């Protein structure tokens, strides 16, 4: 593994760890926010303010609105404000859900980055092993070539040539003395 590749892997792991830490921090802040939102929604008696508003609203519709001093224009503004608040609550809930989905995606992404780094490490390790095996195989081939050159066939041929030469000399001596 070369140094640059090692630095890249360390950088990827560092980013994955940072991403995971940020994701956890986001989830903590989100839960704190939701808890504060719930507390704001509840009244001093612990009951849901929306339930109190709905109950009071239905009572107000039953009673004469004129007695309370609201005219039609003020009631229209109040209903518009309530609708706006309800829409805002829905939008906030959608944002919270989107943030949750984003946090999950980031968590999955960090796992994938770590897995990819592990796979790259394994590939690099296997390449190094193959390179070492090829070098060892080359050494073995060179050794086998040297052994073959010094080996039996060359030696056998040399012995046969020497024996042929000795037989030729003996044949010549025999013909000369006989």
Automatic annotation (TrEMBL):
Record-given protein name: t-SNARE coiled-coil homology domain-containing protein
Pfam families on file: SNARE
Domain T-SNARE coiled-coil homology per the UniProt entry, residue ranges: 82-144
Record keywords: Coiled coil, Golgi apparatus, Membrane, Protein transport, Signal, Transmembrane, Transmembrane helix, Transport
Annotated transmembrane regions: 152-173
Originating species: Ilex paraguariensis (yerba mate)
Record-stated family: Belongs to the syntaxin family.
Signal sequence bounds: 1-16
One Gene Ontology CC term in the entry: Golgi membrane
Stored SMART domains: t_SNARE
GO biological process, one term: protein transport
